[in-house]
Amino acid sequence: MSSVHHGKFGFRSISARLFISVFLALLTFTIAFVLLSQFAHNNSDHARNRAVASQIMNQIEPFLAEAHTLSAQNNLLQARFSLVVIKKSFDIFDESLNAKIGLYDPQGRLMLQTENTDLPETLLPDPPWISQIFAPSPPHIVVESALGYSLWYENRIPSPERPLMAWFNLFSGTVLLFTIMSAVLWWISHSITWRINQLSRQMSRLGEGDFSVRVSEEGNDEIAVLAHGFNQSAQKIEQLINAHSLLLAHASHEFRTPITRIRLQIEMMDMLTSQLDAATKAKFDKRASAVNRDLTGLNDLVESILLVSRLDAGHALQATEQVDLYELIRSEVQHYPEATLIGEPVSVMAQPKLLTHLVRNLLNNAMIHGIPPVQVYLYHAADIQEAKLIPQCLLDSFCQIGDSDILHSKSDEALAPESKTPTDFLKRLTRPKEKDKPKFDKPNFAVLAFIDQGLGIPEDKREDIFSPFVRLKQEKKGSGLGLSLVSQIVEAHHGKIITDTWQGHTRFLVILPLTAKSKPLAYETKNEPANH
Fold first, then answer.
1. Which of 149, 155, 231, 345 lies 20 to 30 A from 364 at CA?
2. Is 518 helix (H, G, I), strand (E, B) or coil?
């Protein structure tokens, strides 16, 4: 990377370059507009008169040269004869062109002129160029020869004034000049701001999690200094993130070995307690069970940390497969007596282990931090807005089709025999037959809705709960990694998670694309209106 100088930039600074560019552009525009105004006054008649005067001078110039040579040799008689020839030519031109024509010597004195012509005895000096620009063109034309003689040419009948033509010339020239200056100013602004736009795009990528982005540090101005600081910041952030992920992965791996050893030691101690009396053995078994529960919780925490580090590194979602979401959720819900699953057959391209973590963590969160019982709804949706509305047929556990066709639930999907509570039931709904099915858009998403009886999460906390190690109620148990892990799993599947208040209760809404090639969805936590 090129070195960047911090300090005074002088004329290389953005402000100086912008000021100079705009100043030069305005100056150029002013000069061009003045010249354009002069061009509007100089119409085609003026140009035609100059062309005629130049042709007359070309025709009489040989006679002028001869008269000049004879005068220098003191042969005045022959010189006068040449001037008479020139005078006769002027009269002929006067008769055909109806113009005043005169000839002046190199000192500006009148030598001869056509009949009925009142020309000044001497030529006036040319006015300053500023006056020539702002003043209208004179009615006569003065053309000089190579020998210094001057020809005066002026129409006896003035040319008719055509103000509309002058205004048209001025207007068309102004439009052309404005177009050119606009293109120049656009090029100036683009040359100055394109690096700012590039820096803005790279900052957006950095905000999206791509810490490998860098920008060019070309130049020696404020933008180069800003680019240098951005690259340094991005490099340090990337190093910190990599070190953090590596530390989590290594620490989690190191934790596994002592956990396994402690569990093995407890089992060995349990074998040794067979010789103890019943009361002492009961106390030991109670303590051992407590230790095993703590070890299980610690092992789950280690697994969560490992999974978080793999998700951060982008290695968790590798091979995907077709997953039956209903069966996956059913296998988890049956372990929670106060959870109910009502849904329809839904399959997605995903990694089943990650989705299992997702469902388990959301159920644990609802049971620990929410208020049971918990309803889990599974259904299709065509877009994000439709996903926020739970189908009424799921809410009622059946759909009204035709007269009274009620969707059935399969008996082999009932709860395990050991589950006896009234809320322990699972209902699997099927879509209506194609002939009775209303015309909906093609489903693009699978939607999982987890609803507990809580009053909802405060709006100012809805983004914080997806951060690692965040717990709204510190007295509740838990590591604070559950929802963070859920958010990362959803993001890895290019999905979206929403938390809101639905019919007065807490809802977590997970929206997953049906195919693995779908574009990532925006993350959102908003209070959406409930459907009734």
1. 345
2. coil
Higher pLDDT pick, 316 / 366? 366
Distances (CA, A) of 350 to 58, 314, 341, 353, 360: 93, 15, 20, 9, 16
* Residue range 69-114, pLDDT digits in tens: 888 888 888 888 888 888 999 988 888 888 999 999 989 899 889 9
Nearest to 492 by CA among 516, 463, 525: 516
Q: Which residue has the higher pLDDT, 520 or 17?
A: 17
H/E run at residue 156? none
Whether residue 2 lies inside any domain: the answer is no
Beta bridge partners of residue 379, listed in sequence order: 447
Q: Is residue 526 part of a domain?
A: no
**Do 130 and 243 belong together in one domain?**
no
Q: Are 506 and 457 in contact (CB under 8 A)?
A: yes
Give the pair of three-digit tokens for residue 17. Answer: 């370059």
Contact status, residue 291 vs residue 331, Cβ threshold 8 Å: no
Residue 366 placed within a domain: yes
Q: Are residues 367 and 499 in the same domain?
A: yes
Q: What's the pTM value of the predicted model, to 2 decimals?
A: 0.47
Q: Which helix (H) or strand (E) holds 251?
A: helix 222-272
How many domains are contained in the chain? 3
Asked if 226 and 95 sit in the same domain, the reply is no
Nearest residue to 485 (alpha-carbon basis) of 316, 346, 249: 316
Residues 506 and 428 in one domain: yes
* CATH number of the domain that residue 453 is part of: 3.30.565.10
| Containing structural domain, residue 82 | 44-161
- Which residues face 103 on adjacent strands? 112, 151
Q: Does residue 306 share a domain with residue 396? A: no
**Please, what is the Cα angle at 437 between 435 and 439, to 5 degrees?**
110
Residue 381: which of 466, 495, 457, 489 has the closest Cα? 495
The type of residue at 437 is K
Contacts of 158 (CB under 8 A, 6+ apart): 139
User: Could you tell me the CA-to-CA distances from 78 to 69, 81, 92, 106, 147 in Å, in that order?
Assistant: 10, 5, 22, 20, 18
Type of residue found at 419: S
Percent pLDDT > 90 in the chain is: 10
Q: Do 367 and 452 belong together in one domain?
A: yes
Alpha-carbon span 349 to 345, nearest angstrom: 14
In a domain, residue 19? The reply is no
Q: Give the distance, in angstroms, between the CA of residue 69 and the centroid of all CA atoms in the same chain.
A: 80
Structure token digits, residue 122: 């001497």
Residue that finishes a domain, picked among 313, 347, 368:
313
Q: What is the mean pLDDT of residues 320-326?
A: 89
CATH code of the domain in which 256 resides: 1.10.287.130
The pLDDT of residue 376 is above 60? yes
Mean pLDDT lowest among 16-20, 27-31, 190-194, 421-425: 421-425
pLDDT at 312 (0 to 100): 64
Whether residue 340 is found in the same domain as residue 437: yes
